[in-house]
């Protein structure tokens, strides 16, 4: 994305949002606010820095997703840079995705091109999972990654063929689902019914997770949710933030949070000097090299967070 394209994309998005009159709860509104820090989410998708961003959790459905689709349609009519953006729904969670980047993300994860850190929250204290194949929940997550790689096939999407839900995709995620496929709008990818039957809990797909491009995945099974809440809320955490800065001529060009995630303090004693943290930063820097004209800086900041009540 060149500078002129960026300026045009911001103008188109601003115009599209003003044309679609709707109300979001405050957290969602901030994320789409024209002059706010969460502009970074949209730009991160368009520039390939992130495969997925979450827009809302527990919002009004289906109004919210329909309004988002309306905004995207207007943007896509105006500029091709928005072509690969789609709305994705899992239960009451709504995401904006870049289908090509999500396809690459699923492929690279399965090929271990991006190192993932699995943290088992079912035990006190939480512990690293060194051998994923010995963890049933980790293997469930890997099955979900395989599922996404089928739903978002790299070769087809690179040829501008957008994803479709097929019987093959359903059988990977949940063999018990009937082969009967309910047609879906091409504007919305609703995966809710296909998640059912897997043992991967919603937080694994939502909180500090693989889907959003984070390097740390908290693993827990449905029957251990209360244990996981206790085990995490009673521990100090390190908060890792990836910060970017846009060109000075754009309003709000100070540091913007691209993404952030947490790791139990005792499992990240070296902070940004942890080997996995350095590997993740190198991974993000490789993405940044392709769009330096948009983001003039990229850095990781690490802070500490004392024990506090959480909700998974």
The tally of helices reads 11
Q: Termini, distance in Å?
A: 36 Å
Q: Could you give the order of strands across the largest sheet? A: 1-3-2-6
Number of strands: 10
| Overall pLDDT level | 79
Helix content: 25-40%
State the secondary-structure class: alpha+beta
Helix and strand pattern? HHHEHEEHEEHHHEHEHEEHE
Strand fraction equals: 15-25%
- Rg, nearest Å: 19 Å
What does the overall shape look like? globular
Uncertain residue ranges: 24-32, 177-183
Give an overview of the whole structure.
This protein has 312 residues and is an alpha+beta fold. 37% of the residues lie in helices and 20% in strands. It contains 11 helices and 10 strands. The protein has a 4-stranded mixed beta sheet. A hairpin with a 2-residue loop joins strand 2 (85-90) and strand 3. Helix 5 (99-110) crosses helix 6 (136-151). The longest helix is centred in the N-terminal third of the chain and has 17 residues, at 3-19. The two termini are 36 Å apart. The model is unreliable at 24-32 and 177-183 (pLDDT under 50).
């Amino acid at each position: 994305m060149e500078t002129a394209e960026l300026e045009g994309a911001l103008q188109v998005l601003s115009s599209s949002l003003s044309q679609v009159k709707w109300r979001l709860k405050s957290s969602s509104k901030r994320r789409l606010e024209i002059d706010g820090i969460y502009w970074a989410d949209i730009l991160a998708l368009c520039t390939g820095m992130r495969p997925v961003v979450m827009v809302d959790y527990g919002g009004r459905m289906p109004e919210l997703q329909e309004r988002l689709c309306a905004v995207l349609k207007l943007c896509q009519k105006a500029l091709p840079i928005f072509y690969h953006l789609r709305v994705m729904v899992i239960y009451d969670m709504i995401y904006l995705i870049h289908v090509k980047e999500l396809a690459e993300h699923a492929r690279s994860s399965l090929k271990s091109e991006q190192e993932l850190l699995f943290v088992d929250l079912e035990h006190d204290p939480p512990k690293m999972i060194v051998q994923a194949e010995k963890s049933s929940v980790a293997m469930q997550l890997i099955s979900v990654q395989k599922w996404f790689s089928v739903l978002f096939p790299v070769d087809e999407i690179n040829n501008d063929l957008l994803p479709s839900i097929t019987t093959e995709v359903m059988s990977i995620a949940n063999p018990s689902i009937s082969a009967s496929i309910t047609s879906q709008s091409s504007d919305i990818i609703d995966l809710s019914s296909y998640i059912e039957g897997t043992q991967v809990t919603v937080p694994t797909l939502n909180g500090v997770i693989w889907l959003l491009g984070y390097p740390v995945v908290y693993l827990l099974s449905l029957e251990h949710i209360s244990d996981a809440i206790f085990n995490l809320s009673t521990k100090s955490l390190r908060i890792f933030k990836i910060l970017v800065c846009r060109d000075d001529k754009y309003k709000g060009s100070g540091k913007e949070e691209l993404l952030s995630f947490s790791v139990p303090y005792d499992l990240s004693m070296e902070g940004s000097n942890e080997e996995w943290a350095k590997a993740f930063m190198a991974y993000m820097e490789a993405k940044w090299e392709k769009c330096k004209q948009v983001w003039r800086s990229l850095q990781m900041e690490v802070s500490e967070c004392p024990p506090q009540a959480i909700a998974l």
